Structure formats: C-alpha cells, structure tokens
Amino acid sequence: MRGPNPNRKQHVAMKPENTGKTIKRILEYLRPYKLQLILVMLLVIVSSAASIAGTYFLKPLFNIYIIPLIGKQNPDLSNFLEVIGLMAVIYAVGAAAAYGYNRLMLNISAGTLYRIRTDMFRHMQSLPLKYFDTHTHGELMSRFTNDVDTLRNMLSQSFVHLFSSGITVIGVFIAMLILSPVLTVVVVGMLFLMIFVIKKLGAQSGKYFREQQLAIGKVNGYIEEMIEGQKVVKVFNHENKSKEEFDKLNEQLFEASKGAHSFSGMLRPIMGNLSYIHYSITAIVGAILAITTGLDLGSLASFLQYTRSFSQPVTQMSEQFNTILMALAGAERIFNLLDERPEIDDGTVTLVNAEFDSSGKLKEANRRTGIWAWKIPNRNKSATYTQLKGDIRFSNIVFGYEENKTVLKGITLYAKPGQKIAFVGSTGAGKTTITNLINRFYDVPEGEILYDGINIKNIKKADLRRSLSMVLQDTHLFSGTVMDNIRYGRLDATDEEVIEAAKLANADSFIRHLPEGYNTMITADGMNLSQGQRQLLAIARAAVANPPVLILDEATSSVDTRTESLIEKGMDQLMEGRTVFVIAHRLSTVRNANAIMVIENGEIIERGDHDDLIEQRGKYYQLYTGMFELS
User: Fold this and answer.
1) Residue-level pLDDT at 15
2) Helices 297-339 and 239-292, axial angle in degrees (round to 10)
3) pTM score > 0.85 for this model?
4) Domains (range + CATH), the chain
5) What DSSP string runs through 91-131?
6) Low-confidence ranges of the chain (pLDDT < 70)
7) Which site from 41, 81, 127, 399 is most exposed, i.e. has the minimal number of CB atoms within 10 Å?
8) What does DSSP assign to residue 585?
C-alpha cells in the first residue's frame, strides 16, 4: 500500500513567505475587537507596571523601615505594615489586570477563530471541483484543525505573553538604570549572552518544529487513506505492509518531534541556569559597589530582584518565537485557501417556476407549479421565458482536466426532451467526463453545450444544477435520518413526498424494515446499510428532486440482479418524460435507450439504438455478445 498520493499538492507548515501580509490580514480579523484589544494592552501595562512597582518598593522598605529598625527594643511597625499593605494592593491590582486581559483574549481569540472557520467553510463551498482533485482531504482538514489550533495558541497566549514580556523588559530595564547604571551594564552584557544562546537553540528547534509539522501532515494523510481503504487492506492481506509504512512515517514524526522538543526543552533550563549565574555575578558586583561606593542595601535588594524578573520575560519571548512563526505559517495556509479563486459564474439566466396565462403565454409564478422556465434577462430589464424541456446538445466539445492532456476530442451529440441516452465504453474512455460537463463541474475550453437552446455558460450554476439530478456510482450519505438523507434532494419536500420518492426507487420496503423506519439514524456514511441499500437511497434522493434531466452514473452497479430489476421498474417511472443520461457497464440496462453512444479514447465511435448497433457488428456488438456469453 502506498502513502498519500504524491501527485497531489503538499503544503507544509514552514516559515510564512510574507509575514507582513499575513499579520496584516490577521489584524483585519481582529478589527471588530479593536476596543477590547486596547483594553487588553492597558491591562497588560497595568499588570507589568504593578510587578515592577512592587519590586521597586523593596528599596524604601529596606532603607527606611527595615534597616533603621534593626536593634531597637520596641520598634514601631505601623508605617512598615502600611507599606506592606500598599505592596499587597499593588500586586492584587496586577493580578486582577492579568486575569482581566487573559479573559478578554480568550473571548477575542474564540470570536476571531469563529469568523475564520466560517469564512473558510463558506469559501470552500464555492471552490471548483478541480481544487479538491488536487488537494487531499487530510490536507484540507489540517487547515481547520492544526492550522487553526496554532493560530488559537498565538492569539490567546503568545500575543499577550510577547507583549507583556516586552513591556516588562523595558520597564525593568528603566528601573535598573535608575537604581544603578553600573550594575545595568553587567545585566546588558549577560543579556547579549542569553540572546546568543536563544538564537542558536531557537534556530535548531525551529527547523525541527517545521519538520514535525510536515511529518504530522504525512501521518494524518496516511491514516485517513488507510481508514477509507480498510476493506481493500484486509482483502489483500496488506495489514503488515500498512503497519510498515505507518512505522516509517511515525518514525519520521518521532525523530522530528524529539529534535524539536529536545532543543526547545533545553532552552528553559539553560536560560534558568544563566539567570542564576547572572544573579550571582550581579550580587557580587553589587556587594563590591556597596562597600566601595556606598550603594544602599535597598537599591541592591531591588536590583537583584529585577535581575530575576528581567531574564524570565526574555526566556518567555524566545519560547514564543517558534510558536508565533508556526502560527503565522498556519495562518498563511488558511489565507491561501481563502485566496483560492472560487467557481466562476458569469451566468445571468435563472430557473423559475412558471405557468401559462389565459393566452397560452409563459409567465413566472411565485409557487411550485411543476412547470419550469429559463428566465433570460433583456437589456431593457424585461425578461424572456423559455420552458425547460431538457433538450441538451454538445457541439464539438474538446476538454481535458490538465493542459496538454485531452480527454474528450470533438464530442458532438444531442438528447431531445424525454430521450434516454446511454454511454458505454471502457473505463477511462470519457463517459463520466461528459456528464460532469453538463452540470458545469468543469467548463469547456472549446465547443459549446446548449440546454434548451441556451449556452450553459450563460446559466447560473446553481440554477443549472437545480434542473439536474445525479445518481453516482459512489454514494455518499450524511449523518442524520433516512428521511433527512432522501430530503437532501429537495429540502422543502414534505414527508409524504419523501416516502413517495422512496417507493418510486423501490426503497420503501427495506426502509420500513429498519429499526426506526424513516427515522433510523445513518452514521459513518451509511455503514449500517448495505451498499445496495445506500444506492437505493441515492436514487430516492434523485427522485424527490423531481428534475427534468437525470444523470445516472452506474446507478445500479452495487445491487444484485433482483434488486436491479426492481430499481429499473421504479427508474422507468422516474425517467418517464425526462431527458436521461445513463452510464452503465451492464449493457442489459441500456437496451431500451433511444440512443447508445460508444465512447473510446474520448471519441464517439458508434451511435444508434440497441438493434442498430447489433446490426453494425462493431464495438458495441463485441461488448454485448461478450457480456451475453458471460451471463
């Protein structure tokens, strides 16, 4: 078993390519919280100032209240206790400010990420299928999980810690300059050493953190692929091979994580020990200055406390650096998704309910009439109405999913209203591609497709797709009840209409035998149903939509012969009066088609009804007789 598809784009969480642009876009999302952010900054300043001021109080506490009272028989502690009380108030204010800005940042980060996730999901719905063809599900999921999570850490924690540490460093540095410029020089010298260590260790940990993000993406993608293909793994007894592949990827993740957290873990103890050395050197130099220059003990005590509170925020700033880089890289990946060009829809023609007036002229109706019409706007703001009949024509269509790789080569065909058109041919011949072009999953670079005489490029995609219904070979069911899954074809369908559609698809019988009938919950893409039952629900979903055009892509491929015959009876009723495109490998299902197109290498090599093609004794004859002999 292979790992994730190597031909798909792989995006890894590395350093952001444009840090300034990414930060600017994050700030745009933070704009609604501008006043709260200002309050956060003020509270951070208050918290840092309280910490700095509380430490500075050690100087008068020693010089005015403690040292003069040494040796006295009955010292007066009233003033001393007042100062202690004042310090307690200052620290309490600082603690309250810290609590306040942390709560505010949690609210800001949660609200910001809510908006980002909403924008991501909404934009994802507007992207063309081509985007999903070139990006793995695991990679897209990582945008909503890993990348959003790193951004959450930055907004709720790193941003505040960085700002708080910066304010503390500046404030402490000013206070130390005031207390003793000479000792401050010692602190600055030690600061350069700390920065050097941070730079070296940070570069190594940053490299491994980026490798870790890449490895996480690979592991997640592989797990997703194995979960989806678990049946295939077991059928071919590839469990051990899958374990070997996973072990390799997991080993890469282990090595990257070990390196990242080893260097990251070294930083705090090394910086801690450097801070102790720094403290010791400062104490020694301070003692010398006290003896030689008369530096007072209060100033020395305050300064020594500042040395501890100076190195700690420097360490915190270094630890937040990699987190912020990773978050910005994740944010850039999120914004890359948001910058993906959505489906282009220049259509102006819409689909409306219609009815005939007394003179027999078509007009728009504000209720469901069972008659549909294309509303074509005119330049004078009036509109022309063309009844939707289901006349679809391809004219010299040339198409390829990739440049220089043509799939369809000059396809020309037509389907008159109510006709059943079948496509047969080998896998990869281009049958499904033709149906994908009808609903504009992809736009054609050459040729044109006309729908009731209107170029489908002029029809709004939502309205075009509303006039069609598809039953795919790979069915997909959503979490919810059976009733909800059928109603997905038309959300305003009543329960009675849903049940009628199920009867039409011959699904009603098995549904009523489920534990709770139509209210039975479907989970895990319908794993509690058989493949044939899932296919029946997909057909019922198409039936409830009641479209004028129906596309059946191997709609009965996953059901047995008996079930297929039941479905076909229902399908005959469903297809009556509709234009139907059928793709089938079982040629018995297309015998009654009005026209059968034999596709080979992107070209129509034969066309006609069943009897005509049998008489031609060409490719269809070979396929049909071969199928007949096999049966």
Assistant:
1) 54
2) 150
3) no
4) 19-339 (1.20.1560.10), 350-387 (no CATH), 392-630 (3.40.50.300)
5) HHHHHHHHHHHHHHHHHHHHHHHHHHHHHHHHHHHHS-HHH
6) 1-17, 65-78, 202-203, 206, 210, 213, 217, 231, 235-236, 264, 315, 318-319, 524, 555-564, 566-571, 573-574, 585-586, 588, 627-631
7) 81
8) S
- How far apart, in Å, do the first and last CA atoms of the chain sit? 33
**Residue where the block lists tokens 């007789």:** 625
3-state DSSP helix/strand/coil % of the chain, to nearest 5: 60, 15, 25
DSSP 236: T
C-alpha closest to that of 584 among 411, 592, 414:
592
pLDDT digits (tens, 9 = 90+) for 165-199: 888 888 888 888 888 888 888 888 877 887 777 77
200/184 Cα distance (integer angstroms): 25
Q: Which two tokens stand for residue 370?
A: 């069972």
**CA pair distance 552, 471, nearest whole angstrom:** 5
Bridge partners for 620 per DSSP: none
Kindly report, residue by residue over 500-551, the tens digit of the pLDDT.
Answer: 999 888 888 889 989 899 999 987 677 778 877 888 888 888 888 888 888 8
Residue 139's closest CA among 5, 34, 260, 14?
5
* CA 118 distance to own-chain centroid: 10
Alpha-carbon distance of 221 to 3, in angstroms, equals: 8
Tokens of 24: 């600017």
Measured torsion, CA atoms of residues 497, 499, 504, 509, in degrees rounded to the nearest 10? 180
Side chain identity at residue 75, one-letter code: P
Please state at what angle helix 297-339 crosses helix 34-56, rounded to 10 degrees: 160
